[in-house]
Amino acid sequence: MVQVDMSQPDRVLKPGIDLWEILKAEHGKSKGNDACINLKLFRVSDRNDHLFDTIMLAGNGWPIGKKKLKAMIPEDFKGDLDLLMLVGLRLWVATEVQTYNGKDSLRVQIAGLKFNGLQKVGDIPPGYVMPTEAPLEGETPF
Question: Model-level pTM?
Fold first, then answer.
């Protein structure tokens, strides 16, 4: 059996700047066969709100990918990047709504923040404060 509640409202997208945490980081390939990192993030203040992003490591997307990586790893980093180093990393992320095939979702707004839509956790954007964390499911919120 599966629990279904048709009266539950649709997900409301909340674009803007917020603190997100990387939940998953995986190696991938673009449609053009260029190396990339596929990320899944969740909003710290709402653990049910997820976002997917791709960081290109080669090809035409490398200049954007390189700048995004500067929000995550040292700028002089050289060598093999263990993607587990990224899991649990928190970043400020600027998001916007995109519509694809009639479905709305959030995406990183690369024109926002210092590193193509991303910013280091300790560099709080002007006018923002560190959010209150949503409790883990089943966790007592006090």
Answer: 0.85
